[in-house]
Amino acid sequence: MIPVANLCYCQYPITKKIGEDTVVIMTLKQGEQINKTFNKFNQDLSLAKDSLKIKRSQYDSLYNTIFLVKDSFYDWKWKYEANRNTYYKRETEVQKDKKYDFAQKIILIAIIVLQFQSLK
């Protein structure tokens, strides 16, 4: 059991305290493994950065698209409100014209009726 514990402990670098300093003692194999792991993590990080840049550019383009749609919607909303107000103003004018035409017709009928009565 004791040799197995020593073998497991040898997998990790050993630290020794010399005076006020701490020194790490490791084998070449351990150093190479640490370097490989560091390089692998570094490559993974650079790939992750690249994929994040791509995602950010996609999100930026999506944001710009949404922003344009929002602007065009508010522009459309403004046009709709302007057209609606113009329509309501025109409708009130049309109603006034209809009332004016109806009054003219009533006056004309009254004049005709008065002329026929004056002929008798």
Features:
2 helices, single chain, mainly alpha, rod-shaped, two-stranded antiparallel ribbon, 2 strands, 120 residues
How far do the termini sit from each other? 143 Å
Total beta strands = 2
Query: Compute the gyration radius: what is it?
Result: 46 Å
Which band does the percent of strand residues land in?
A: 5-15%
Number of domains: 1
- Counting H and I runs of at least 4 residues, what is the number of helices? 2
Spatial arrangement of strands, main beta sheet: 1-2
Low-confidence stretches: none
Largest sheet: 2 strands, antiparallel
Helix content: over 70%
Structural class: mainly alpha
Mean pLDDT: 82
> What overall geometry do the principal axes of the alpha carbons give?
rod-shaped
Order of helices and strands: HEEH
Q: Care to describe what's here?
A:
The chain has 2 helices and 2 strands, in the order H-E-E-H. The chain has helices at 2-9, 28-119, and strands at 14-18, 21-25. It has a two-stranded antiparallel ribbon with strand order 1-2. The longest helix has 92 residues, at 28-119. The protein starts with a helix and ends with a helix.
